[in-house]
Amino acid sequence: MKKIPVGILGATGMVGQKYVQLLENHPWFEVAYVAASPQSAGKKYKDALKNGWLVGGNIPESVASLIVEDVSDVAKAAKKCAFVFSAFEMPDKDMIRKYEEAYAAAGYPVFSNASAHRATEDVPMLIPEINPQHLDIIPIQQKRRGWEKGFIVVKPNCSIQSYIAPIFALLQAGYEVQKLIVTTMQAVSGAGYPGVASWDIIDNVVPYIVGEEDKTQFEPYKIFGEIKGGKIVPRKTIEISATCTRVPVSDGHTAVVSLEFEKKKPSREKIIEIWRSFRGEPQKLELPFAPIQPIIYREEPDRPQPRKDRDADKGMAVTVGRLREDNVFDFKFVSLSHNTIRGAAGGGILNAELAFKKGYLP
Ligand code: NAP
User: Three-class SS of residue 153?
Assistant: First the structure.
């Protein structure tokens, strides 16, 4: 099969580099267009990395000499790529929205990591194992905005990625969750580069990440929502209370979760069985980036740990452990996922693979 040429907006940043790394040798897609800020535009990719190559190994040769374009110059993408991954950051979210819409209007499907469009009612926020049906809103989005081939799909915040699949698996099995308290311990790579100053994070825990708790509390509602009347209507049946912290870990977000069921309460063994047998559309379709087992349960009393578990199944699986009965709620557990793979570039690639298999890509 001839590979589909793809673009990366924000290709020089932490997540952009992860896309470049993960897409090397992808069976369907190849990087053909890279864009970043005006300061990087006009340079060869390898020379535009002002902080160097941050993600390990070498820059793939096929990308190293590509000329970086300015994200705002949409016309430069013409005939170079069929769709784009968006991983650029700007202080003004309206500008991110505007540029992503400009690419969609110019005919490019946009798979975004940015938060700018996550709350937009006709933009699906996808985790392919959970809400693949939300892709059905694409024709509505295109019609409403007059876009012929382009559209926007976003992925959720990396913080929820570590605990939302285990919760969804329980809901799907018929066990309604009523209350959930989550504390996240998020890696420094989640803040991009250079991210948190070393003076703030070495020998320390920072108990606040701007905007993160609101996202952690809202985004699950949209993901569990339903398409009704041309928009995604959030399903707000679970009460979620989140505390998000930054910890001195390079990669891998950990979440400590306590939950209470509404009526029926499964046994510990039943919950583990539900998690281990959980499979979604990416597994059925055998998408290249799909983990074989999306939720891995580990019985060791001291797992999951970021260094030992973040790379499970190419960094795409969520690892869960320490499920036990709770004195206040029904159960509690610890859950972990790789924030720049499953929570960022790998998740974006899985979204594009799903859209491709479902016939949404040109
Ligand atoms: P980052 O390392 O700071 O990279 C930012 C990127 O945006 C760079 O390519 C930069 O280009 C570009 N950029 C900055 N100003 C720009 C401008 N005025 N016009 C166009 N491009 C501009 O950030 P990151 O961690 O990769 O995050 C990128 C996006 O992914 C963010 O929206 C973030 O919220 C999201 N995200 C990150 C993670 C994670 O784990 N890190 C997880 C999920 C989602 P230059 O190099 O030219 O400055």
Answer: strand
**Class of CATH domain 4-157+344-357:** alpha beta
CB of residue 172 inside a 6 A radius of ligand 1: no
Measure the CA–CA gap between 67 and 227, rounded to whole angstroms.
Answer: 40
The whole-number pLDDT of residue 1 equals 78
Sort residue 359 into left (φ over 0), alpha (ψ -120 to 50) or beta.
left
Does pLDDT of 362 surpass 80?
Answer: no
Q: Probe ligand 1: pick from 33, 63, 88, 253, max atoms within 8 Å of CB? A: 88
Mutate which of 22, 31, 37, 96 for ligand 1 pocket (most atoms within 8 A of beta carbon): 37
Residues 6+ apart with CB under 8 A from 55: 14, 17, 18, 21, 340
One of 3.30.360.10, 3.30.70.1290, 3.10.20.30, 1.10.760.10 is the CATH number of 159-337, namely: 3.30.360.10
pLDDT of 225: 97
Distance 351 CA to ligand 1 centre (A): 19
Whole-prediction pTM: 0.97
